[in-house]
Specification:
By secondary structure, the chain is an all-alpha fold. It is 90% helix and 0% strand. The protein has one domain (2-38). The chain is built from two helices and no strands. The longest helix has 20 residues, at 19-38. It is elongated, with a radius of gyration of 14 Å.
Length: 39
């Protein structure tokens, strides 16, 4: 668990600028759409 945290602390800043931002946006966008469809 500690190793995983260290890896995240290293890679997160690198990913954050490009991939992670896109992934998180698309992920939340998809979740919001699914919730709207259920309603």
């Amino acid at each position: 668990m500690i190793i995983l945290f260290k890896l995240l602390s290293v890679y997160f800043p690198l990913l954050r600028r490009s991939d992670l931002d896109r992934i998180s946006k698309s992920y939340f966008y998809n979740r919001i759409q699914k919730k709207e469809k259920k309603l």
